[in-house]
Amino acid sequence: PSGTAVMLGNILTEQLDGKHTLETGRLDRKRAQDEIHISSVRGGYTAGVHTVLFDSPVDTIELRHTARSRDAFVAGALKAAEWITSGKQGFFSIDDMFDDLLGLHN
Description:
Layout: H1 3-15, E1 21-23, E2 35-37, E3 48-55, E4 60-67, H2 71-84, H3 94-102
Parallel strand pairs: 1-2
Antiparallel strand pairs: 3-4
């Protein structure tokens, strides 16, 4: 899985009651109740499809992002490079950039 997927999985294991383990490997067994499972499939000509499923015995909620090209990824990388070279000093995450751009300073 991508770094973003793993990051989101870690956030979920920290925030959701009863979910303590993040599993990113292939499962040849039923997922344990306390696990969140993240998997990835890469292939074809689609630039990127990211799907988050919240599954229960009675229904499934699905959130999907489909990138039709890599242009958005390039634009994001260029924006991050522009931001980090604008006189910032230190170590930063992408969250720091978004907080700064959105005016959400701590």
